[in-house]
Structure formats: C-alpha cells, structure tokens
Amino acid sequence: MAPLKLLTGTVLNRQMVTPGMVRITLGGQGLKNLVSTGVGDEYIRLFFPDSDTGDVVLPEIDEKGHWKYPEGKTPAHCECYTIRKARPGEIDLDFVVHDHGQASAWAQSAKIGDTIVIREPHPIYDAPADMNWLLLACDATGLPAVGRLVEQLAPHVEVSVIAEVPDASHEQRFETRANLKVIWLHGAGNGVGPTQIPEAVRAVAVPADKSVYVWVAAEMKAVRAVRKYLRHELSWPSARYSATGYWTDKRTDWNARWEALDPAVKKKIDALWGSGRDGEEVTDEVEATLEKFGL
Fold first, then answer.
1. Which residue from 110, 112, 121, 127 has the fewest beta carbons nearer than 10 Å?
2. What is the block-wise mean pLDDT of the chain (295 residues), using blocks of 10 residues?
3. Model pTM?
4. Any idea which GO molecular function terms this record carries (predicted)?
5. Identical fold at 6-122 and 133-249?
C-alpha cells in the first residue's frame, strides 16, 4: 500500500452536536482529491498548529511510509479522529468538548477559513462478511464511529450499542436500517466516573446461532479489559472483534511513568511491535508488560 499522503483542509463550518460534542466540517481545494475508504470507523491524523507560534512542523514521509521530522524543530502535535461523515471533497469530524487538550481547544475555537493538515484516512472495523449480530461499545470518543457504523448496516443485522456518557444531554440519535438497541450509561467513564463498559459487555447475552462481531473503542484500560474477556475468557478469534484504545485517562501521570521506565523495557516493547509476529500475540505481551509497570 502506498504511504498515506498529507492534505490541507479548510474549516467550512462549526456546530454543536450536543453540549459535549462539536462538529467541524473540513473541505476546500486541499481536500478535493480526498478518497474515503468507506469504512465507518476510518480515521485521519490531524497536525495541530502550535498554540503560541502557529507553526506546523510536519514529517517527511518516504516511499515506505516512514516519518522523519526536521532536526532541531518540535514536531506538530498530532491526534487521530474518526470521520463522522464523508462527502466528495468534505468531511465532518466530531470532537469531545473538554477544558484540556490541544485538539478540543482547536475545535472549540476554530473559525471558518482556518486550515489544518491531515493525513489520509485509514480504517479499523473489519467485520466478517456474514456478520448478522453486532455489539458496539464506546464512551463519548467512540460515538462518531458508532454513528457512522450503524448508518451503514443492512436491515437484517441486529446491533446493540453500549455507550457511556456524562449525562443524558450527551446522548445522540442514530439513523439506521438495522434492528438497533442502545444502552446509555450515564455518569460513567469519560473522566467523570469509573467505566462501566467491561461489566456491560459481560452482561450481554451473545447468541449462539448468529455470526457475531464486537467492536469497542474507549479509554485504553476499559478496552484492554474487554479484549481480555473476548480473547482469553471466551477464546474468540481476532476476526470476531476489534478493540481500540482511543485515549488514556490521567495521561500526564501515564506519561511520567512511561518516561521513568527502564530503557531496556521500552526497547523490548519496540522490538515486539516490530517483530512481525501475530498481532494479537504481540498485543498480549505488550499489554502484560505495561500492566506489570502500572501502565
């Protein structure tokens, strides 16, 4: 696959979806050739301008897709965000509203005409072709992907959504042709309370006569617990689930513990990711190592 290219999007609109979600529409000449993968949870990487200088130091990408930043310069802060809606030359991105973090601050203050550099989209969701029963579990950060995924489902699919949000005002309405059931968990996760996602997933009765798929996207440790349940307790093959940590609670503390980690441990983790071994086996070892050191 060719390396994903960097493109420049222009802010065309900003609107509130709920009190906790702001939607930014990007388009303009720089996105006229943007090609969506069509997959409901496809994400792009955004490169945010320095809040003080406005500078955006971008990576150089070689033919193998490897990044290299100019020496002596601070790389632009970058984060991944799901494309909520894709139209020719335009995309909608939904940002969780909070009082910390560069991405949320940018989205809340973005003005029509502002520009931002993005990397082309890449998908994660990969349900089996015969899937007819789907469980989607997320916190607020996963709602954009959930909304788009359910919109794309066929009428014969039974889909349950478990979504934890700060309160009822953060609930969203999803349009779908599928048979949809939504369970809202108020006051859970999202930095406002302990996550309830792992327990809620365990409580779901998975039908034995269906072709099933589980997709979960939320805080890292909540996702880790669900993945353990599916992979190690239920012994599901990786083709039947997708588990992606979208963010890390108490990130500053996590970063401090990571920086204090023995360099040999970091080297071991890097070697595991680059080993070429089965991805799920590597993830098992990496997560076990991280947990050993409180990460």
1. 112
2. 81 97 97 95 94 83 78 88 97 93 91 95 96 98 98 98 97 96 96 95 96 98 97 96 95 92 93 93 94 92
3. 0.94
4. oxidoreductase activity
5. no
